Every structure is written in structure tokens, then in C-alpha cells.
Amino acid sequence: MPLLEPKPGALRPRTLSGPAPDRVPERASTGTPEPLRSELTELLGADKVLWGVSDLVRYASDASPYRFLPQVVVIAEDIDDVSAVLSYAHGKQREVVFRAAGTSLNGQAQGEDILVDVRRHWAGVEVLEEGLRARIQPGTTVVRANAALTRHGRVLGPDPASAIACTLGGVVANNASGMTAGTTRNSYRTLSSLTFVLPSGTVVDTADPLADEELAHAEPALCHGLMEIKKEIEADPELVARIRAKYEIKNTTGYRLDAYLDGHTPVEILRGLMVGSEGTLGFIAEVVFDTLPLDRELTSALLFFPSLPAAAAAVPLFNEAGALAVELMDGNTLRASVSVAGVPADWAGLPKDTTALLVEFRAPDEAGRAEYERRAAEVLAGLDLVAPVASVTNAFTSDAGTISGYWKARKAFVTAVGGARASGTTLITEDFAVPPSRLAEACEALLELQAEHGFDAAVAGHAAHGNLHFLLAFDAGRPADVERYAAFMDAFCRLTVERFDGSLKAEHSTGRNMAPFLELEWGPRATEMMWRTKRVIDPDLVLAPRILLDRDPKAHLRGLKTIPQVEAVADPCIECGFCEPTCPSEDLTTTPRQRIVLRREMMRQQPGSPVLGGLLDAYGYDAVDTCAGDSTCKLACPVGIDTGALMKDFRHRRHSPREERAAELAAQRFGAVEVAARLAVAAADKITGVVGDGVLRAVTGAARRAVRPDLVPEWLPQVPGAAARTLPATRRGGAAAVYYPACVNRIFGGPGGRPGPSLPEAVVAVSERAGRPVWIPGDVRGTCCATIWHSKGYDAGNRVMANRIVEAAWGWTAGGRLPLVVDASSCTLGIAHEVVPYLTDDNRALHAELRIVDSIVWAAEELLPRLEVRRTVGSAVLHPTCSMRHLGDEAQLRAVAEACADEVVVPYDAGCCAFAGDRGMLHPELTESATAREAAEVTAREFDAHLSANRMCEVGMDRATGRSYYSALLELERATRP
């Protein structure tokens, strides 16, 4: 064991709330049972089979209120893997559930046997016919697909609020629609073709002209069964009329029976049935969408009404005027949204009954927008609106920032309301539709029903389409609360069906939640057709049993998960998964959601539980060590949960007093540490120049094994040489700013083999050239932004350096009169924001007077307007750092690059490189995983320049791509050099 290996017990929850009724049983502590584990490992390979208890627990939860522990998790890489798993399941009488993003709200992504992850290796977009169509892999998020289409002026029809995280395979499998899709722009209507794998392993491409012929040869009984059901449906005029009527409004309850009416052959019928089938009929391996025009001329308004029925009554007026979206948010939703960044704080004081409509018109040109503005004004003139707080304007706008803020609040509905729920309660999301003309009546009935059962739900939804969502919170660990929820559900379902002939699931699909009520909505005849469909396509019931179809009248009450209280920063989490696509460790170990899911399971256990022990053993590496600490999860989370901060706190908990003291001493004596570090880098550079990298890699490898991998960096060939011993000479007099070269740029030099000045020399030169000279204080050595200590959880050292840099900056800038320009984006973020909690009261007051400016912003806003660009490169690819995302500086990086290059590209998959100072040297596998997709984009073509804004991120990208990255300011200096 390494000398300083931390004990897993240091991460043990300080108080346990267990044993919870839904805790993982002790028999699962050893993970996947035999022979299942060894058989799948032999079939697929060890790297594709996750079997530890920690693996099973992190995959047991999704965005729904349910939790089911799989027996094993398989990471499928291709169709061959999927077919192999299905064949195995048939032979062993086992069950299979497919899972991609896990954003489903009704338990569709959960299984109790073999769970297959079809997200990790299934991403990709191919734009066809100049954007008219797009071929998309099922693990691709909606946002990623639309990013590829935007440059062609096209967009996908489905636009769910979870677009940042949900994947196209899940969107099609659930027929998810969203704010504007309605019944005409959803997957069923805009899907051109798809490729799927049937439960038998047969692969069908519906675009293949020979598909029906090949299917008839491979699956004659299936083809016959489908055509027999089609004949029976078409022979029953009453059933045909019922089916057509059900899809006049949004409906995802059960199978798409209109597929039998719209399709003329078995393949055409299957193409329709797969949409909304929730993984119960096959695996969707690829989709081709017909895209829609991206209308860029917008006019939007957030309009406030005195009550929910009053707002609902206005919806038809905007529909008639041509609004593409009319979204409703009730008072509970609006008040909860104040937790979302950018939402006006005074919404917290809105009266209880206040309700808002977010109305948006979209047009292809300015003339079209002007016409919509005229129509909107006519509708507004007849409305009785309210303005109960100062921020309410009740006016239409075309300002992109304002419109984006409106949509940010609307899309955060589930997470914001869920985050505001009482701690320890489970969140249920319901989704129903009624004829739009009866929306106001349905709202009144819903409010009465909630009051009758003691619920005060939050309501929001796609009012234009008669589709509302509401959220209920209750304690799943209390039988009386579960009974109250059950009684409400029975009454709600009867109300929706019997009074309004509505859809019990408009766009979230049936799942486990609504399966017991399927026959209530559809009637026995149509429901039996759905059961027959399942038996024809999946006669052995291999795929997702008890999802969508379940004859148990209480199935929706089985598997409800308790939500034990965890650390305050993470407790609001509703496990939605919005954070996952941005997480650097997503494809290596765990995601922010999974880190919280595992923590909650620890809380469910009792002291001494072998499950608790197993989770703690894995948590150190899987959750804490391999967290990059970049906190981009906070940016993706609508309520700003910072799991990175929690992991830094856990790192602190694992430190011994000796480690904390050593880190504090390093901060106190950082001047000597800095000199020693630069000399060590210089020595290493000389050694590798003589004997190569092998010796240093062997030495650091031995030290990592002896001490601890999370303390001793691994030597990487991409580590740059030492910086110059002295910084450029500057003058204080006449300086427009104080320039602070970050310690990383005082220790490490620029990219090897690239002629020209160092970064500090370039910043000084280009600032002088623009007539905005900078001054480098003589005593910068020995100071730091404190990120070194902050990222590792060394609180004492962090406090020392945080206060030192603020006090020094106060003196350098003459009390904040000059800006402090910092030449590494992570250091800018550190000094501007991250040091604040560690400052004394006096220094916090000093900090408030400082102006901290990133050098890229300084160049874009202060230098570029005063510079003459004399030469450019043909193309440049950018790596915006995660710190720049936090600072909002990405546009300035692009501006600098566009001044230096004729073509500037930001990869679609650009994200955090996870080098995170030295974490990429402590855990190189983290950076390798985090950068894989971005690196594939970068290396697919040649670029003349590879630009970024942080030296260690540049090193990480060098390692990932084999290309040489350097600061955009070096390129700016070259471009403007006389």
C-alpha cells in the first residue's frame, strides 16, 4: 500500500439516516453474481462489463422517482455487442433494458437484470443534403445535433427542455417533443428512417429498399403477426376512429397504434411502432431526421396573469395569432425559479396565484417578425395583465439576452422546483394533455384535485398544445404519504380520461409510472392490440418487461426511491442528469449525478453494512480523485449544484494533519517553492534531452507507487521546459494596467520549437504596441492565485495564499485604480472569484474594489481596437477553457482568434480537458477520456494554429491531439508585429 494512501473511512458520512426501506440489500455487496459476471465477461470482454456494487448503484437511478438495481451493466460499443447481449438473454431467459442519458422521468432507463449503456460509444452526427436531413447516432444529445445543423440554418423538430442532456435515441424511443414540437414536429412526424435491432438480433434499416424482403425472410412470423393486427384494426371502424382521435392531441401513452394505419408493410409499421416504444420492441441504433428551417427572427414576451385559469384562457388567442410557443408557468414555478442564475430575485415575492405565459413568435425574416409583432400587440390590448413586482414588463422583445433568460427559467422547471422541495422528499413529474380549447377548465379541475389530496403542486407546460406538467413531492419512505400519492393518481387519471378524454402521458411516455392506467385511457380493445404487438415482436419478453405494459394495478408504486439528506451543496439534486454531458470523467468513472446517487445510497445503509464498505472503497478513486474539479457541472445544473466543490471538500476530509500543515508551509514559502519548481523543470528538460523520457517516467512512477498517485505527478513528454529566469522589464509610470504573470507561466515556458517571445514578453509587447502599456510588479514571485491549494482541498494553504494575493494586488493596483490583468484563465477565475470565501473580512472588502481582467479580455476589448493586423494564418482551432466558461470570456477568445486567422473553428465537442493544473499528470487517464471526442474533431483535419488561454490546458490538448497548442496572445503578437 502507498505510504500516504487515505483511508476510505475518511469519506464515511458523518451521520447515517439508514437503514432505509429501499436500501441496496447486503447480498448485492459483492456486485454481479456468478455465473452472469463471468459469462458476460467472456462474451464481451472485461472492459465492457461493470459488475462492482458501486457500478450497479450508480446506474440504479435516473431522473425518475424510481430506483431499480441492475444485476450487471454492459457498455455496448456497437451493434454486434447489442446483438450478442440479446442472444445471451434469449438463451439464459434474462431481461435487457437499454439506457442512454437517463433523463427519462418515468423509469424507462432502469432495469432489474441486464442494463446496457448505449450512450458512451454511440455519439455522432452526419449532416446530409446541406442540412435538409441528418443521420444521428442514438447517444448524441439534441443540443449537439442542433449545433451541427445550425450553420446550415436548420434544426430538429423535437425540442425537449432536457436537450442539453437527453439523447436522440431516447427522444425517438419516447417520442419526446418539447416546447414547439406539438403533434406535427415530433419524432413520429419528422423521422425519415431509422435502423434498429429487434429482440431476436435482426437488424432492420427502414431506408433500405430491400428491408421488407429481408425481414420477411428473417422474421416471417413477426411479419405475419403485424399484418394480422393491421387487418383487425382496419376492420374495426370504431377503433380506427378512436386511434385517429387520440393523436389529434399530444399522446405518448402506450404504443403508436396509428403506425398500423400509416404503415403499409411490416417495415413501415415497425418504423412507426419504434417511435415511443421505450426500448420494449428493439434497440434504435441510428436515426435519420428530416430537419426544419431555423427561423432566426424572434419576438417573445413573458406575460403575467392573476391566476392559472386566466392565463390558460389567453392561450387560444396567441395560438390564433401564430405563436410557435406558448409556455405556462404557475406561481410555484416562478417563485422556485429564483434559484436559477439570471432570474429576477423579486419573483420570490410574487403572489401565490400569479401565472405567466412565455409567448414566442418566430419568423424567417424581419418582415415576418414585424407582422407577428402587430398581431401580438392586438392580443395584448385585450388582456388584463398584472405587474406585481418591479421586474415584470409584460412587453414583447427581440433582445436575444432577454429571450434566453426567459427560456432558461422555463427549461429549469423540473430542476428548480425539485431543488426547492422539502429535503428528503421524492419528486414526481406528471405530464398530461387535454384539447387546447379546454385547458382553462382542466387547470381549474387540477387545482381543486390537488387541494383535495393535500398537494400544492407546481404547474408548467406547453399550453399551446394543451400539455401541462405538474410536480408533486412526498416522502416515499412513509407508507401514509405513498397512499396519499396513490389516491391522488387514481383520481387524476380518472379526471383526465373521463372528463376531458385527455392523454395521461403527452410527451414523457408511459414508463413504469402510467403503465397500470393504460387500459383506463385506451380501453380494453386497443390495449389488447398493444399486448399483442409486444408478443409478436418480443415473444420471450426479453426487452424491458414492466415498462409501458404491466397488468399490476399498483406497479407505479413499486420501486419508489427515498431521497436521504446529503451534504447541503448536493441535497437539492433531483438526479436529472443535466450535468453529465459536461463532466470530464463521464466516460471514465462517475458523473456529478452519480457521485450524489452513490452518496445517497451510503446514507440509506446502516453502520457496518458491507454495501457501505464497498461503496466507500470505490468512492475515493471513482468520485473524488477523478473529479477534475472544474465545476462545469454547476454551469449545466439549472440550480447551480457544484459537485466539484463537494469533491474538493472530500479531498480536504482525506488529508491528514501532516498533509495540511505541509501544504500550508508550501504556501507560506511559495517563493522558494516556485524557484525550486522552475529549476526542477529545467533539470528535467536537460535530462530528457540526453536520455529521453523513460528515466523520468520510471522515477515518477516509482514515487507514485510508494507515496500516492494522487500526490505525485506522472512525468509526461508534453510537459514544457522551464520559463525564463527573469520577467520582462516594465515601468510603473504611465501603465494602463498591472500585469500579473501567473505562476504557471513563471515556471513553465511556451511550446518547444516555436520561435518568438514568451507569453509574458508577448503580453508586454502587444500592450505597448496598442498604446496601453502594462507594468509587472517586482515582487510577483512567491504569489499565486491559490488555485493549487483550492483544487486539492488544502484549506489552510488556500487561506494563506488567497489573502496574500489580494493584499498584494491591492497595493499593486493602487487600491483598485488600475485593472489587474492575469494571463491564465484559471488564475483569473481563482483571483476574481474562488479566493473570496477564504478571505478575512478586511481583505474581502479590499477584493471588492479590485478589477480582475483576463488577458484575453484585455486584448479583445482594450488592445484590438488600437492594433493593426499585418498578417494572418489560414485557420485556427480554439480550445476555450472551462474557466473561460465560468468567466463568460469565450466570445473574447474568438474575437482575438478571428483577428489572427481567416477561419476560426471551435470544435462541437470542445469541453474541459481535465488537465486541471496537475490533475492530468496525477491521472492522465482522466484527460485522455475527457478530450477524446474533441481530439477526434481536431485531428480530422489540418489547422494552421491551435489556440487557447491557459498553459496547462494547452499541455493537455498537446497530449490529446499531438498538435502544439499555445496562447492566442502569442498569435496576436505575431499578427500585429511590425
Q: Label the overall shape.
A: globular
Beta-strand content estimate: 5-15%
Q: What's the gyration radius in Å?
A: 29 Å
Low-confidence region ranges: none
Query: Which class do the helix and strand fractions yield?
Result: alpha/beta
Overall helicity:
40-55%
Spatial sequence of strands, sheet with the most strands:
12-14-13-16-17-15
N-to-C terminal Cα separation, in Å?
Answer: 59 Å
Helical segment count:
40
Largest sheet geometry: 6 strands, antiparallel
Mean pLDDT over the full residue set: 94
Question: What's the number of extended β-strand segments?
Answer: 25
Topology:
Elements: H1 36-44, E1 49-50, H2 53-58, E2 72-75, H3 79-92, E3 96-99, E4 114-117, E5 125-128, E6 133-136, H4 142-150, E7 154-155, H5 168-174, H6 187-190, E8 191-197, E9 203-205, H7 211-218, H8 220-234, H9 237-246, H10 259-262, H11 266-274, E10 283-290, E11 292-293, E12 297-305, H12 308-321, E13 325-329, H13 331-336, E14 355-363, H14 366-381, H15 400-411, H16 413-419, E15 426-433, H17 439-452, E16 458-462, E17 467-474, H18 479-499, H19 518-537, H20 592-604, H21 610-625, H22 632-636, H23 643-654, H24 657-668, H25 670-691, H26 694-706, E18 737-740, H27 743-747, H28 759-769, E19 774-775, H29 787-792, H30 795-812, E20 820-822, H31 825-834, H32 841-848, E21 852-854, H33 855-863, E22 873-878, H34 882-887, H35 890-900, E23 901-905, H36 919-922, H37 924-930, H38 932-939, E24 945-948, H39 951-961, E25 965-967, H40 968-976
Helix pairs in contact: 7-8, 8-19, 12-17, 17-18, 20-21, 24-30, 28-40, 30-32, 33-35, 35-40
